[in-house]
Design goal:
Blueprint lengths: L11 H19 L26 H4 L7 E4 L5 E5 L14 H11 L11 H14 L9 H14 L3 H8 L3 H18 L1 H11 L9 H9 L8 H10 L12 H17 L5 H8 L22 H13 L7 H10 L3 E4 L3 H14 L7 E7 L6 E6 L33 H10 L13 E3 L4 E2 L4 E2 L6 E3 L11 H7 L2 H11 L1 H10 L25 H12 L3 E3 L4 E5 L5 E2 L6 E3 L3 H17 L13 E6 L5 E8 L2 E8 L8 E5 L2 E5 L6 H13 L63
Parallel strand pairs: 1-3
Antiparallel strand pairs: 1-2, 3-11, 4-5, 4-16, 6-9, 7-8, 10-13, 11-12, 14-15, 15-16, 17-18
Helix pairs in contact: 1-4, 3-10, 3-11, 5-6, 5-7, 5-8, 10-11, 11-12, 13-14, 15-22, 16-18, 16-19, 16-21, 17-21
Amino acid sequence: MAKKRDGGGLSTTQRTARFLGVSVLAGAVLAGIALPAAGALGLAAKGSVEGFDEIPANLKTPPLSQRTTIQDSDGNEIAKVYSRDRTVVSLKNMSPYIQQAIVAIEDARFYQHGAIDVKGILRALNKNAQSGGVSQGASTLTQQYVKNVFVEEAGDDPDKVAQATQQTIGRKVKELKYAIQVEKELGKRKILQNYLNITFFGEQAYGVEAAAQRYFSKHAKDLNLEESALLAGIVQSPSRYDPVNDPQEATRRRNTVLQRMADLKNITQEQADAAAKKPIKLAISRPKNGCITATDGAGFFCDYIRKVFLSDRTFGKSRKARLKRWDQGGLTIRTTLDRQTQKSIQDSIGKHVYEDDPVATAATIVEPGTGKILGMGQSRPYGFRGNQTMLNLSVDHNMGGGAGYQPGSTFKPVIAAAALEQGTSPEQEYPSPYRMPYPSPVQTCDGEWHGSPADVTQNENRKEVGPYAMKEATAKSVNTYFVQLISDMGICPAVKMAQKMGIERADGKPLQQVPSMTLGVQEMSPLTMAAGYAAFANGGEYCSPVAIESITDARGRALKVPQTSCRTAMSKKTADTINTLLKGVVEDGTGKEAGLKGRDSAGKTGTTDSRYAAWFVGYTPNAAGAVWVGDPQHQRKMYNITIGGVAHDKVYGADTPGPIWRDAMTGALAGRPAPALPTVPIDDPDKGKASGDDKGSGKHKPGRGHGGDNKPGGGWHLPGWPDILGGGNGGW
């Protein structure tokens, strides 16, 4: 809704109050009172003004709300966001016509009088007395500027706006006193510049630069005579003189301004007449505000930047302070987003999953060693319509995401890393039968977990029978191997390894210490999994995700930004061993469809109980990415389903997320170095070819706990607990 300035549509009571206010102020001035203190006017009641010895700094240089520009890592614009569409410019970047026009119509004697125009007050009193109302005001441009600063500070808070505009003698005196000091300290040209930058021109445009862009799609310095007159006329009542919705009324007002400029000899009468005959010619630029306008599908990443700003104490001690700073805007935020990577992610997603498919996909790629988020995308577009969503499917709940998604067998490398750190050999064999009960008891960080004979897990198919060593068990994603592994090792080392790798639940709750965690039953986000796997690529060192490279304010000053925090999650030997295991997955295991050509890669497939979600998480030495496919509502099982035009009897991590990851990474890394992943030799007898995707993941029986990646009969159920360990609903 457009905002209306004083001067139009006032009630009889309001007109009377204004008339009396002007009279009282005029009397004070004419009586020779220089307004040194509020007490001189007997204004001791509420609403009086105290402490006028010094002008507040914000009146000299008000912190005007402006556009914030969010850029990619190369400085290309992703989007503009703002609470006030405003770009502050100097007088030299404003057309002389707009400067003359605003003075002519708002305060013709601006350069002749001080902060208070006594002659103008007398004229207003006389005019108003004759009309019996308030047909003419007496506020100078300087007074209007001071009032606008108060309104700007109030922001969108209706109570504060009311206080800033209340029609009381105390507020008027305060306004006058500050106006006197503003005139003394700033001078006329600076006041005019500030006024033209702060005032509201309707159509969401604050300041003359934004107004010129909105109405004429040009810069303020390029405004011609009739355009300048039109904008100057809008200021008194943006709703009444809106040229978009009422061009006739706006034309009349423009012509009034033109005539006033001629009367003051700013232009000739001939110029005024010629301009008045011209019809209004608008070239509207619609507001392009917010992440919904982001390029290359980066709307969710753009929104993530806002979440980072509002949640990180680097930008303010309280959320309220951070929100105020964000709304103030005027920032240039250089992010970590790599345009090539982002485009590759969106191209791959568009190829494999359609936005109107019954399920969605999300993908995130980060840089090992720096934590930089290079790309973030999903199949459901950013927005409010149709298949659009505002839910960022790549991130945790507190950063704009949902409850997360069970990662299935993509969690198994975490268990393997924990075991290796405990001294377990990668050549460790387990019987790994097709079906087995969970060993009990199992040691946790706080005691022991106890199961029952009915708590069982099983592999993807009956041919998957051990013994298996770690390499083949990882390649085939054998559930029973990893259940035996975590039972021998204990749950606590696995929990601690996940924590060191930054792998946490998307809902922020602590990891449940249960043996089925090895099968990926606790919901996580793609960003979490990508950043965790990056530790394998980075020699065992985990670096927390970061999205902001630098920020400069409206004056070009650099602000402090959050930095990645790196820590050793595991030894380099352990990381190199995991590289060897996960290279086997893409070379001769469940993830062959995801393997990259011409460069080393490693990764792991994952599919959850009842096909509620499917994953591929993988990496090269210079990029780590996670792809999830599933129903964000945790309702649609991926059986007998068509995704991206391809029919599936049932979805595996290898046949849908795997190709998305492959194509996204291929484009992201095109033309970039292809270093080798460091590996270690592992002796592992050939047990035959891997079968299926995550074929070795594990389901559970209906109504029982989750046993891992879609294998029937896995998991267990604890009395009194909801089916949180992965039940048939695919999540809690």
